[in-house]
Each structure stands twice: as C-alpha cells, then as structure tokens.
Amino acid sequence: MTTAKRDTYTPESLLTVAVRVFNERGYDGTSMEHLSKAAGISKSSIYHHVAGKEELLRRAVSRALDGLFAVLDEPGAQRGRAIERVEYVTRRTVEVLMAEVPYVTLLLRVRGNTRTERWALERRREFDHRVAELMKAAVAEGDLRADVDIRLATRLLFGMVNSLVEWYRPQPGGFPGEEQLADTVVQLVFEGMRATGDQDR
Amino acid sequence: MTTAKRDTYTPESLLTVAVRVFNERGYDGTSMEHLSKAAGISKSSIYHHVAGKEELLRRAVSRALDGLFAVLDEPGAQRGRAIERVEYVTRRTVEVLMAEVPYVTLLLRVRGNTRTERWALERRREFDHRVAELMKAAVAEGDLRADVDIRLATRLLFGMVNSLVEWYRPQPGGFPGEEQLADTVVQLVFEGMRATGDQDR
Questions:
Q1: Residue B114 burial class via C-beta count within 10 angstroms: exposed 0-12, middle 13-18, buried 19 and up
Q2: Which positions does the record tag as DNA-binding (chains A, B) (predicted)?
C-alpha cells in the first residue's frame, strides 16, 4: 500500500510528472492510475487541477510549440536577409529544444489518435512550413542553392535537429556545450562538412 | 474465436510479421500471444521455427546491421580518398535504410533491456565509430573542415539519416525518389545549403 502524498502540486509541477510518464509509457499507454501513482496523489486530486490526461498533453505540447513559434516572432527571425533569418531560426530551434527536451520529445512522439494530438501535428506542420518559406526566400535571394529540393531539405534539417532529443541531456559543462551544439548544426546544414578554404571568415 | 491458419511460414516470412508487431507495440510490449495472433498460427508453431521472441529480434536487427556493415566492405568504402569513402558510405547507408525501413526502424528503437538489445546497441556504436574514423581521416587529408567536432558531426549526420525512418515509405515513382533522397543527404551534409557559385562542377 502506498501512502498518498499530501497534494502540494500546482498545474505546472503536475505537468512535469505527467510529461515524464507520457515519455516513458507513451501517451496512449498512460492511464490516470499511472499518473496518480507517479505523482503520489489520488486521481481526484489530479482532477482538481486538470480535466484529464488530454488537458495535460495539451499543456505539455503547447509549451513546446509556444517556444518554437515564439522564435519566429523574434527580431532575428524578422529582419535582414532570408538566409540570416533562417540560420537564426535554426539556431534558436536547437536552443528551444535543448531547454525543453522532455516537452519537445513528447511533441515529436505525438501520433494523432486524439483531437489534441491532431492539433499538435497540424501546428508542427505549420512551423515546418514557415521555415520552408524562409528557405525559399533565401533561394530567391540567391543565398541558398537552387538545386536542392526545399521540402526535402527542410525535412532533413528537422530530422537532424529533432534527433537531438534522442541523446542530448542538459549537463552543465558537459559535452557538447549548448553553444557548440547550436553552432555545429548551423555550420553543418548551411556550410557543409567540406573544407572550402574560407572558413575563417 | 480465430481460426488458426495452417502454418506455411518460413523463419523468414515469420520475421516479417514479427518486425511489424515489434514496431507497432514495441519489443517489450510484444508477447508470444501477440505474435501468434498476428501470424494466425499457434504459439507452438512459432516455437517450431524459433526459440522465442528474442531470437526473432536478433534475426531482425542482424538483417539491418549486416546490411550496414556490408557497406563498409564495398570497394567504394575501401578505395580512394577518405572524403570519397565517407560520402560513399553515407549514400549507401541511406540506401540500406530505404531498402530495409522496418528492420532499421526496429534497430533504432532498441533500448538495451535484453542481451540481444545490448549487443545491437554495441554494434550500432561500432558502425558509428567506423564512420567517425573515416571522417577523421578526411580531416587529416584536408578535405573535411577541422573546425567541427567529429564525434558531434557524426551524431548529427546519423540523426539526419536515421530520421528518414520516421517518414520515408518506399513508393515507386513517389516523392522523393531514392536517388534524389540519397543525393540530397550527401549534398546537405558535405556541401551545405549555402549557394557557393561552384555548384555546377
């Protein structure tokens, strides 16, 4: 028999527990019972904070999505040549991901079985689309190569960026550092790995 | 009540069914009962072919690993400058992945709970290490930039390549074509997206 903890949760701290359980068991595989056990409070205490597990999912993926969309409204994403804006957005996307690993992990695993999941998938597609539009603008301005399919390149770019959730764990002073990681992603995608002789600019 | 199908399976065709179920339910979440239902034959018929679900896992991930390691023994991976060999290996890795989507998907999801899973993780690390060694050789020969951390670049490269299993489905004449996909990955990683003015060479 487990002794129920006194409910000192806020919707925010309950969310931290829920996201961990969703990522461990999958959203579909998580019941209110699992959440109640993990949080150490009764199901009715959880219902005191939220309407149910779908509300927790919505809050969690919203946090990841809000972080990503906020990047698009930052001055660095709004001003200057399209190439500078797309590099800025790439760098900041990596940073948001590193700051919000559990939330972005959950977002990336969303499958589309519920209304909230379908909404999250739709928002993800919209974000990818906004970045693809920036890339197209950079092609039109002559700064990105015109011989690469932009839809495919965008998918591959996000494939690389999103793969970080598989192994990146925040660790002060650990390898790689956050800045090094963001720099390397931007370098790889935009400059490539080949030595060109002008890499000191 | 389900009518059991007459057992016309070979170990090979049984493997196809098992890999599908493992990818749908997760290896841990799959029981012999699930495999028996999906194959439409009794559990004892399955035991006639294999010792248990771990043998099926081992056969499945071996198929993916054998495909990947075979690339390293091909002439294109053995001869010439390191940069040409590493580009060759990247292209062929994409091709193996596209040809073996379900098997590579399973390999990438292996977590390390059983001996077979730990063995598979060890083999994956060995493959990544072999590619990282090729990259280092290309840096030493002056063809890859020296200002990028190779361990990190290798992780990001595989992050991009492995992300293909999330969305790529073989489809004759579909978008993107296999060759276009392999070309684009190699271009992105080695040449980058930036227009350089010498892309017609």
A1: middle
A2: 31-50
CB contact under 8 A, B196 and A158: no
Calpha distance A151→A100 (Å, rounded)? 26
CB A185 within 8 A of CB A161: yes
Per-chain mean pLDDT for chain B: 91
SS3 B144: strand
Closest-CA residue to B90 (of B200, B181, B195):
B181
Residue A160: count of CB within 10 angstroms of its CB: 26
How many Å apart are CA A87 and CA A112, to the nearest integer? 30
Residues of chain A below pLDDT 70: 1-5, 197-201
- For chain A, the straight-line distance linking the first and the last C-alpha, in angstroms and rounded, comes to 65
pLDDT at residue A56 in the model = 97
Give me the CATH code for the A58-191 domain, please.
1.10.357.10
pLDDT tens, position by position, B114-156: 999 999 999 999 999 999 999 999 999 999 999 989 999 999 9
Q: What is the rounded distance in angstroms from the CA atom of residue B146 to the CA atom of residue B129?
A: 18
**A137 CB neighbour count, 10 Å cutoff:** 16
A99-129 burial: b if 16+ Cβ within 10 Å, else e: ebbbbbbbbbebeeebebbebbeebbeebbe
Whole-angstrom CA distances from A124 to A9, A55, A162, B16, B131 are 30, 18, 12, 32, 32
Chain A residues inside the 8 Å CB shell of B155: 163, 167
On whether the B11-50 domain is CATH 1.10.10.60, my answer is: yes
- Per-residue model confidence (pLDDT) at position A201: 42
What is the interface pTM, i.e. ipTM, of the complex? 0.87
Q: Which of A167, A184, A199 sits opposite B153 (nearest CB)?
A: A184
> Which of helix, strand or coil describes residue A96?
helix
Chain A nearest CA to B86, separation (Å): 11
Locate CATH 1.10.10.60 in chain A: 11-50
